[in-house]
């Protein structure tokens, strides 16, 4: 199977899994004893997912996947640091994933906090804004407000996914090279907690 066919098949599997989940028809595949035992010697996921640590956004459940299917990296606000970059590089170089999904979500607390800081909310601590979380998410919020002074949280959430993807490609020669060669694709997505559906932002 060539890279593009594998990428398309992998993404189709995830989207179909999300459809099942959103419609209340989750199959919960690969969660049995046989699968667990088959993975003792190693893992071979096709996709890596960088998503928010929010307890309402677990990728395996959202995409109706199971053991060994996804290489998960989760940080508050799906922010990128060296550990995230090196984890994704490992997934590409050693696990040979063909797809990276960067997934934000509806009602993101990090986005809400960044917007409060930019709005001058006196109840939000400046020290928090200077942390990596607020620095990265705050940058996305500033971009959103520069484009539209009435930007909504949903606008910031979508822009933050785009900014996160840009950071991955800019800061990692490994990721950049894999994307340019066509061996790896990056999908931008936003999970809607309200209806369980994954909104595709870029592919």
UniProtKB/TrEMBL annotation:
It comes from the Bacteria. InterPro entries: Carbonic_anhydrase (IPR001765), Carbonic_anhydrase_CS (IPR015892), Carbonic_anhydrase_sf (IPR036874). SUPFAM superfamilies: beta-carbonic anhydrase, cab (SSF53056). SMART domains: Pro_CA (SM00947). Keywords: Lyase, Metal-binding, Zinc. Pfam families: Pro_CA. GO terms for biological process: carbon utilization. Residues 21-42 are annotated as: Disordered. Residues 21-36 have a biased composition (Basic and acidic residues). Signal peptide: none annotated. It catalyses: hydrogencarbonate + H(+) = CO2 + H2O. GO terms for molecular function: carbonate dehydratase activity; zinc ion binding. Its EC number is 4.2.1.1. It is an enzyme of class 4 (lyase). Its cofactor is Zn(2+). Catalyzes the reversible hydration of carbon dioxide to form bicarbonate. Belongs to the beta-class carbonic anhydrase family. This is Carbonic anhydrase.
């Amino acid at each position: 199977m060539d890279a593009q066919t594998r990428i398309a098949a992998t993404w189709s599997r995830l989207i179909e899994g999300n459809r099942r989940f959103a419609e209340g028809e989750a199959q919960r595949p690969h969660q049995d004893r046989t699968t667990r035992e088959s993975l003792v010697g190693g893992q071979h996921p096709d996709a890596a997912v960088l998503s928010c640590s929010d307890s309402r956004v677990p990728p395996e459940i959202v995409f109706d996947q199971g053991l060994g299917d996804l290489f998960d990296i989760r940080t508050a606000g799906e922010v990128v640091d060296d550990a995230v970059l090196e984890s994704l590089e490992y997934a590409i170089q050693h696990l040979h994933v063909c797809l990276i999904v960067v997934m934000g979500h509806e009602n993101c607390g990090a986005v809400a906090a960044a917007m409060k800081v930019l709005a001058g909310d006196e109840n939000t601590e400046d020290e928090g804004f200077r942390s990596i979380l607020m620095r990265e998410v705050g940058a996305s919020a500033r971009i959103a407000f520069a484009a539209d002074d009435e930007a909504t949280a949903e606008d910031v959430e979508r822009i933050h996914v785009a900014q996160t993807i840009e950071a991955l490609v800019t800061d990692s020669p490994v990721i950049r090279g894999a994307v340019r060669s066509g061996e790896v694709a990056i999908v931008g997505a936003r999970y809607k907690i309200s209806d369980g559906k994954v909104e595709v932002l870029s592919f």
